[in-house]
Amino acid sequence: QVQLVESGGGVVQPGGSLRLSCTVSEEMFLKLISWYRQAPGKERDLVAQISTGGNTEYTDSVKGRFAISKDNAKNTVYLQMNSLKAEDTAVYYCYAGNIWGKGTLVTVSS
To answer: How many helices and strands (H and E) does the chain possess?
Structure first.
């Protein structure tokens, strides 16, 4: 059964950190897995992605602050977000194999 579940969102102060998790079914884990985000009133944009071989890509605005990784034993992809800014506030979505997760809200506010 195809499955893709995100977790880890929340409220954090500017400069803080959060780690998002995306747990997928085994068949999905063999695909390119991406994190997108959508801020209020804006389009959904790619944040980071990781290939089956572990190659990573990031949008310019998060380079040096965010890190995407995968745990093969847990079929889980993580997005470690450090030095968070107010402009990182958005609903974050995991995407793989043409399947979207339901999203998890990240709010960066003092």
So the answer is: 1, 11
